[in-house]
Amino acid sequence: MADDSSTPNTRPALGNLAMLWRFARRYPGRIAGALIALIVSSAATLAIPNGFRLVIDKGFMGGGDIGRWFEYLLMIVVVLALASALRFYFVSWLGERVVADIRCATQANLLRQAPRFFEENRPSEIASRMTADTAIVEQIVGSTVSVALRNMVTAIGGLVYLFALAPKLAGLLLLGIPIVLLVLIGLARKVRALSRASQDRLADIGSAATEVLGAMKIVQAFGQEEREAARFRATVERGFATARQRIRLRAMMTAVAFALIFGAITGVMWLGAIDVAAGRLSGGSIAAFVLTGGLVAGAFGSLSESWGDLLRGAGAASRLGELMTALPDISPPSRTHMLPAMERGARLTFDQVRFHYPTRPDQAALHGIDLDIHPGETVAVVGPSGAGKSTLIQLALRFYDPDSGAVRLNGVALPDLAPAELRAMMAMVPQDSVIFAASARDNLRYGRWGASDAQIWDAARAANADAFLRDLPQGLDSFLGEGGARLSGGQRQRIAIARALLRDASILLLDEATSALDAESERLVQDALATLMQGRTTIVIAHRLATVRAADRIIVMDEGRIVEEGDHATLLARDGLYARLARLQFQDGISN
């Protein structure tokens, strides 16, 4: 889903609104209630001019009981009020419900996407679409469509009534409508492109705000407040400039529509006044014609505004539709294979794996990797930054598929397994701990949602996290803040470790799992991890070589290749890359 804000949507102007109808039609009862109320309210609106005609012709001019006709007029007003209230309720309910369903459907599809999708589409922009664009959709479903239909019914019904009152005058009035429509359609084409561009600029504003607010400490630490304010101001001004063009064009549409429609009505009224003077038309009829003509003119004028709103809504629906219909790069196979069971852990094999990240197609992350990790084995992967260490974990979790070669779990190629089944076999502690804006309990049991408090505390103790968790104001019920803002870096990482401990998976993936811990906490966590690793297949990625000494096997990577392999003592004796890294970290040398 590449976003090119400079390219207008080339699909039919309102064709994208069909997506909204697919969600709305799930609630036929509400739609029926809204339509009935809409028809009744439009009919009552059109009955008001006829009420005035009866008051004038039969009350004032006819000498009859004028109170009777005013009672009739008041009855119409009461019906109009009730029908309008019901219409507002039904369409507002539909608007809120459709937006809620669209948000849920969009989020559900986003959760199916592979990481590549979020590399090519900024999460902050996606969040903006799910807020700003759905707000526009809510306005369209909950207001604009209803108003447009009401005006359409009023305009058509009013024209029928005008022909019944004075066919000649109505015919003259009708001649002006095609001219109005042709002008509006020509202007609407330009509005459609500007509506899409305006939404893109709004997404840019949301994205810029989210990015800066999420990195506020860095912005302030480097004294970049003024520059960021200027950058945001420039983004806002670009959005305002696009919105100003759209507003100017819509204002022009409204002016042209009202000028043409009311100009036509004024000319027709002039001819009507001549007919009244000549006795060919009653005073009540011309009054009803004037009122109805005003309603028809207002309805057509409002339709021009509704048309602009509908075009804007079509742009928003198009952008949301892109999120809802995006196909995931990683999906379950049509026919899954049975995963053979292993007594201890699981077997993970990399067979001649080559891989490029989608955002770096010219730079290979892995070059022909061959690696067989046996059940229950602990394999440490070390090497300089950018060597491809974390990429092994990304492929093991099938966040990406290799360009060539295969990754296998217990002998089964990963594409032959459902991603959920594959990932259920693994627990991961990432380098950058992810803490959700939720309670400590919910963050810990994210690895196993059905875990009891006793199991949660056991995992917390094993990860050396129980002490600070007990000191929190509400214990496990304490809110940890956005991104774990109420915790230190080491505390966040220990919660991530406890989460992985609680998952109790066959394969343990540790990506710099102890990098944020002090020496004492690292020692305690290493003891816990040593117990956890027993009977499990473990991949440990670390820069600090002191954390990998006890591994069954150490893999040394450089520039996407495996350059050395062996245990700690063997690699030191070879005096290769591993030994050089060790000397850099321990200037006084490392003994066997």
Task: Kindly provide the radius of gyration, computed on alpha-carbon positions and rounded to a whole number of angstroms.
Answer: 35 Å
How many helical elements?
19
Question: Can you say what the CATH homologous superfamily of the largest domain is?
Answer: ABC transporter type 1, transmembrane domain
- The class by helix and strand makeup works out as alpha/beta
CATH level 1 class label of the largest domain: Mainly Alpha
Q: Termini distance?
A: 54 Å
What is the CATH architecture descriptor of the largest domain? Up-down Bundle
Indicate the percent of residues in helices: 55-70%
The amount of beta strand, in percent, is 5-15%
Number of strands: 10
Largest sheet: 6 strands, mixed
- Helix and strand run: HHHHHHHHHHEEEHEEHEHHHHEHEEEHH
Mean pLDDT: 80
Which of globular, elongated, flat, extended, rod-shaped describes the shape? Answer: elongated
How is the CATH topology of the largest domain named? ABC transporter transmembrane region fold
Low-pLDDT segments = 1-12, 588-592
Strand order of the largest sheet: 6-7-8-3-9-10
Could you walk me through the main structural features you see in this protein, from its secondary elements to its overall organization?
With 592 residues, the protein is an alpha/beta fold. The chain folds into 2 domains: 16-325, ABC transporter type 1, transmembrane domain (ABC transporter transmembrane region fold), CATH 1.20.1560; 348-585, P-loop containing nucleotide triphosphate hydrolases (Rossmann fold, 3-Layer(aba) Sandwich). 61% of the residues lie in helices and 10% in strands. A 6-stranded mixed β-sheet has the order 6-7-8-3-9-10, sandwiched between helices. Strand 9 (553-558) and strand 10 form a beta hairpin. It is elongated and about 120 Å long.
